[in-house]
Please model this.
Amino acid sequence: PAPKSSAMLTSDQARDRAQDIVARAIRAGADAADSVFAADASSEVSVRLGKLEDVGRSESEDLGLRVFVGQRSASVSTSDLSSDAMDVLVERAVAMAREAPEDRWAGLAPEARLLRGTPPALDLEDRGEISPAELREIAAAAEDAARAVPGVTNSEGGGASASRSVIALATSHGFAGGYATTGFGASASVIAGEGSAMQRDYAFHSARHRHRLEPADAIGREAGERAVARLNPGRVESGAMPVVLDPRVGMSLLGHLTGAVSGQSIARKTSFLLDALGTRVFAQGIHIRDDPHRPHGLRSRPFDGEGLPVSPLALIEDGMLETWLLDTASARQLGMEPTGHAARGIGGAPGVSTSNLYMEAGHVPVETLIADIARGVYVTELIGQGVNGVTGDYSRGAAGFLIENGEIAGPVAEFTIAGNLKDMFRELTPANDLEFRYGTNVPTLRIDGMTVAGG
Model:
């Protein structure tokens, strides 16, 4: 495993741990139970101005148990994994469940839907070793490359990390599974300019396998060039104009979409897309997909947080909203079937989350996408949280570059972009530059008719 840990369990051992506490819960009087076990070991190294700043190492093992007594349930968690502690935990959970209010929607996933047989092999674990000295080299190379960009005047540091995690889930009605993942990351954050004219920017990359991590000097160079490009920003005149979103910020729109189509939002009637299932939400030709089976994907998973199989799914097909994202409880409440999107932390009931979510690439290069924009903005940073999930109203601070006569011009800062997500989705056009760099990925996006307010 990378990084090496003497105590790190295999995924089979983790699965046995989860199964053991579920069996204890049933013996202690629970009608049903599920358990999640998570172990993590990580190493992080940071350098600043060429000197080692910090070396961090952390390890954790946690176990969460949810028990049902009839329609009543309780959740408990612990990092004390001794046998005596397990017995105490189980007794406490069953006692708490007996006192809890009834919830007619809660319960384990439908038994007939559980994943059977061998989970898919997704190649999420790098079995190589990496030393703190190697991490330091990566961090230093990223920072050195960033500081070498002309115009960079200071640094917030370079970093590198390696981690290994083991996750297991067991239920009292027949599911038990576990899997291991590794992660490697490198980053740099630097400052350009002097005094009140200083601008900062950053770059990072992460991968499941070390050999897929971008070269440290490329990450550093991107951080430096991004910071320098922001120097001496101008102001934007207010008005309605096209807004083009860099992929790094455009992916936040998919987060607003998934929040609006999650089962809890629909069941609580707190979504601006409440009545939109089966209707056109985006322009024709737009496809948004969730792919949990992507090999070595940053959010790939062989099963969901309730033990259901996962499979690639279209949320948006040719602009039409095809599905809600449902865990078992919200599916029951809505009279539907769970979609394999349950996500489970150590504590509490499952929620929902996507895996490798992405918008398919469009057909035009970025140059063509902006070629007919006489005046607009290219946004590289979004600031603040001004998004209302109930109404879809959208207003966020931004920084980026002016678009003039079809070309990206000088930097601009301290402006606001505003609209309503319903209109923004319908007016959105993707470029053809999709890359799978993050957990959620989109190409460069153009949205016409947004309101831009200069500072």
In short: The chain has a mean pLDDT of 95. Residues 13 and 315 are 36 Å apart (CA to CA). The chain is about 20% helix and 35% strand.
